[in-house]
Amino acid sequence: MQPVFNNANVEKKPYSAWSARIVQHPLFTKFIITLILINAVVIGLETYPDIFTAYKGYFIIAESIFLWVFTIEIILRLLATDKWYNFFKDGWNVFDFIIVASAHILVSGHFVSILRIIRVFRILRAISVIPSLQRLVTALIKTIPALGNILLLMGLIFYVFAVMGTILFAEVAPEYFGTLGTSLLALFQVVTLESWASAVMRPILVELPWAWIYFVAFILIGTFIVINLFIGVIVTNFQEIVVETKVNKEEDEEEDAQTELERLSNEIAELKAVIISLQEEKGVSQKNN
Hints:
single chain, mainly alpha, Four Helix Bundle (Hemerythrin (Met), subunit A), Helix Hairpins, 2 domains, 13 helices, 0% strand, disordered N terminus, Ion transport domain-containing protein, Ion_trans_dom
């Protein structure tokens, strides 16, 4: 995320302006993204015991470099913010800070397993650096409340079809529809379209040729309708996030332009006052002569 600062604070805090110029530079963002991806590759290589044992020293050095570069990045972003506590008003900034700070706190050998898991989460920092990923994840998060009714509808459909399946196919296919629980699990396999025809439906069709009506009806309702409702809600929220981001960007640009205009107006007013003062002094000296 780009730090928030204004011109007034930049004049008062030179280090803030210097940090902001670094953090907002496109090359800095590309460098951090590249480093996160390289870190991801290194973490993946560590899962191979032979490679890790042979180059353990290099892996330790690489981890130290990654950690301290990311630490410096967080410090620069903190300095670039007009007020340090504003940095933590952004959820992505909090996420980045916790991931990096945890690596320093849990550096003790007693927390090696937890530290390795946290290092894996460090890869997710790419989301906070890449704006398009931020918008996608934000859209998914905002989708959660809207999915309540859809989940309720899907739960009802699953329950109704599971009860029907248990009643109809318990004796024919007890491994799939012997109980309500196994029926729900079988329907979950069907709704994902994972081997539903060959593994679930066709063995039942041998005994009950009309069983295809049950499965086709469930797939049409469960997969092609309910799942598409999920996708529709996510796409709608994503479009709203894109529009909101565009509006916020335009408002920020307008605010920056207004601030710059006010600064120029103040400078012009000061320059005008200086000119008037010089003219008055010149008039006084001429009268004295």
